[in-house]
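Tutorial, part two.
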Amino acid sequence: MGKVVLVTGVARQLGGRFVRRIQRDPQVDRVVAVDVVRPEHHLGGAEFIQADIRQPTIARVLAETGADTVVHLDVTATALGSGSRTTVKETNVIGTMQLLGACQKSPNVKRLVVKSSTNVYGSASRDPAVFTETTPAKALPSGGFAKDTVEVEGYVRGFARRRPDVAVCVLRFANILGPTAETPLASYFALPVLPTVFGYDPRLQFVHEDDVIQVLRIASHEPERGTLNSGTFNIAGDGVLLLSQCSRRLGRPTVPLLLPAVTWAGSLVRTLGMTDFSPEQIRLLTHGRVVSTVQMRETLGFVPRYTTAETFEDFARTHGPGLLPPEAVAGAVDRIAALPLPGGTRGTAPDRSPVTPPTQSAN
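Running the prediction step on this input gives:
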């Protein structure tokens, strides 16, 4: 008899794509898709059950379907439709608690996959150059989605202790980008002008949504020979990009602002509904974040198809040009860099090749 896979968060594009893909795997007999609202996209041959994971009814759903694999994708930074931040937090935290409680009671559940985020490391001036899965955060997130993910992972660790017979895999994704990405950073890059923090050019990592689907599949099945898919793993494409490189490749001008002004601008665009420019995102755009992917490759056995630069290139291609052609933005930067500096010397034109992170070592 094949696997019965229950997936949460299927009303979002990422969840819908995963449901359509996992049901094509020969090991899977049945896919149960769960969300509080009916998705607008097709779910293929999956069985959709409209249920709120914040409510105890999720235990009945899990028991009646007999699911042996649970893929929890309903941990997100943005609300569906007109939902509020309170709704998002309740779904992330209370919903995860209810789902884990249901899994704990179910004798059928043998594998749990949880979508998390590298936001758990926070972003601070004293951060290490590269975070490994065991590196503690210098400053724990004080609010927003980052705090949600910290709480979610805490509950997952508690579940793993209580049910050691269940294989638990936590995937900490870097910023997800792609043609259909629904993330705060994707909304930020869609702005006509990008507000930045004066004096800072943070390093950023991205993971392509296609790679997200693939690594979720790997985590949902039995591990291949020589690999292990239980534990916690950072997931990101190779290399890093500076925020300035991103803006040039998009053809979008930046407006460097002092930190208080950036905070005010973030409140403004959030009020206007243009993007979720939260304090945690401002910290990311100030200090950046880079994670090690050694365990992803050597233990999980996953090699992303897209690098960070290729992920951003695909995102930029599908989201159209900005106010200025990327070539014009790059040319202007080069001309400014070549202007004489005090003392009669000239600046050096910036290197726009992707920046690689420092040498990473295994845990």
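The longest helix spans residues 85-105. In part three we will examine how such features are distributed along the chain.
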